[in-house]
Write a structure and sequence with these properties.
It is built from 4 helices and 3 strands. It is of the alpha+beta class. The chain has a 3-stranded antiparallel sheet. The chain is globular and about 45 Å long.
């Protein structure tokens, strides 16, 4: 993996971890990044019995490939936009698993506002 893609992947994962920890940490969700050759799979899992916001075993997954990342970076897409897009996908998957989607989204929004106020990552 070339330096540009490797450094950018680490930045994207760092921003995504910050977003996920802020938005889903109070729900008990944990983020894991698994590198599988030229793919990176981001898994967000909620252990059984740790939250009332999501059903037991709820989770979400997002995959990006090295070639996709390189292309987007060459097109000028900033790392923050890539992290935000991945976060939105994970958020949509988790909210779909929630019995109260609106309540879940409101809770996540409150946590993001409190934890990331003034940040350019979410926009």
């Amino acid at each position: 993996m070339d330096g540009l893609v490797c450094d950018s992947k680490e930045k994207v994962l760092g921003l995504l971890r910050r977003l996920c920890d802020t938005a889903f940490g109070p729900s008990g969700a944990t983020m894991l990044a698994v590198v599988e050759g030229t793919r990176t799979r981001v898994v967000l899992a909620v252990p059984d019995g740790v939250t009332t916001e999501l059903p037991p075993g709820a989770g979400a997954e997002f995959v990006f490939r090295q070639d996709q990342l390189r292309t987007l970076l060459e097109l000028g897409v900033p790392e923050s936009a890539l992290a935000t897009a991945a976060f939105r996908e994970l958020l949509e998957q988790l909210s779909a698993a929630s019995a109260d989607k609106l309540g879940f989204m409101r809770a996540v929004n409150r946590r993001l506002e409190a934890g990331l106020s003034g940040s350019q990552v979410v926009g």
